[in-house]
Specification:
about 450 residues, mainly beta, Immunoglobulin-like, 3 domains, five-stranded antiparallel beta sheet, 1 helix, globular, disordered N terminus
Length: about 450
Amino acid sequence: MLNNKLKGFAVLTFACLGVTACGGSDNKKDEDTSKTDTYVQFYNASAGSTATALKIGDKTYESVSYADAMPRFTSTPGVSAVEVMGKDASNKDISLYKEDIDLKTATDHFFVLHGDFASPSLLNINYSRTELDKQNAEADKSKMQLLIAHTAMNAPAYDAYIAKADQGFADAVMLGSVSYGEVSTPQILDTGDYKVYLAPAGTTNVSYTTASINFKTKVPYKLILRESFGASDAKISLDSVDSTTNVRNHVALESSVDFRVFNGLATHNVDVKVVSNKQEALFSNVAPFGVTAYQGAEFNDFGVSVFDHTSQAKLLDNVLITLNQDDIKTIFIYEQTTEEGSQVKAMEMKQTQTPSPYSFKFDIVSFADKSNLTLYFLKANDTIETAAYKISAVNPTAPQSLVVPKGEYSIKVIAVENGTKTVVYASEMMDFNNEDNVTMVLNKDASTSFGYNLVKL
C-alpha cells in the first residue's frame, strides 16, 4: 500500500486558477517578490523544433533549443500578445504560436511550447508564490514546490509519485496523474533529496525511476515529461526546471543502452568482445572500416577486447568504457602510430538522434595521421574560399561537431603544411536532405587514391 502522507516531510496541496503551479525564482532578488509585477519563463518541449524564443508585446527574450529553458523575468501585467518565434528553412524569424494572454499581477507564467513544430501548442502554467513565501517566512521552515507537466506527444498517461531519496516506492505519494498536455496540481514539500516514480495511469507498475534529485532551494520546480531520443523503449525523459536556465535531465534507472562498433583497422577483420560483470556481447568478423548494427545492453562499465578474426591474436585487452542509462554510443577501434610503434586503441562517443527540421548535426572523428585539418561543406558552385560551413582544427581522436543546413554537399578535407594546402580527401556530391544526425570517420587507407577515406556510419 502507498502511504497517504510522505513519512518524514510535510506536504501541502492546493488549487490555483487555470493551468497552475505555485512558484517563483531561484534568484535571491526574487525572495521579496513584488506584488505588482508579473513573471514569465519559457521552456521548449517541441521535439524537432528550431531554437525558439518567447515574445511578449515588442520584447523578444533569448532563444532556447529543445529541452532547454530561459530564466524567469519580470514583465508588465495585463493582456499582452504572447508569441513564440522560431526559424524557417532560410533561417528567417517566423511566428509559431500567438495568443492574447492576461498576465496577472503577482503571478508567474511558465510557458511550455509542445507538440508538432509545424503546429505547436503553448501550455500556460500560471501560479502565485504567496503560500510558498508565507511558509518559508517561518524560521523553522524550508519549503519548495513541485508539479509535473506531460508534453510527450506519443506517450501514454502516467501517474507520478515522489518519495524521499532514502525511502522506496512503498513510501511514495502521488504527485499527480497526467496525460499529454496536462499539468498536475502543485504540492509544497520540504526541500531535500527525492526520487520520482512514473507508472502507467491507474497502476502502480513503476516503469520509470529517477536517481536522487536534489530540490534544495526554496523555489518552485517544474518536472517536464518530454520525448526522448535515447535508447529507452519508452522514448520519454524527465527534466526538472527551476527559475534559471538550469535544466537537469533525470533518465530512468530502468533504461537500457544501445552501442555499436566501428573497426578503423585497415588490415584486420576483428572480433570485439564487450564484457561487464553481468553480460557479454560479441561482434564477430567486423570488416576494416565497417560498422556493426546497434546492440542493446544494461547500463554498466564494460571491458573491450579486440581479436584478429583469423588468428585470434589479441590486439587490445580489456579497455574500460562506460555505458550509462539511455546512452547511444559508438565504440571506435583504431590504430595509433607513435615513434615507439603502432598500438591498437579504443574510444567511445555518444551519438545524437534528436530530429531537426532544416539542419543536421555533423560529427567528424579522425583517425588520420595528420593534425589541424579543415573540413569544408561545398555546394555545387562552391570553392573552399566560398564555402559557408567548415570545421577547423580537426585532429586525431578529438571528435568535433557542426550544425549544417540540410541539402547536397561535397566534402573536402584540407591540410596545410609549411603554407602549402593539400587535399586529404574529396567526396562526390552527397545528399543530406533527409538527415538529422550524421557521423563520419576519416581514416588512413592506402587502397584509395587520396590515401585516406571518409566513412559514413
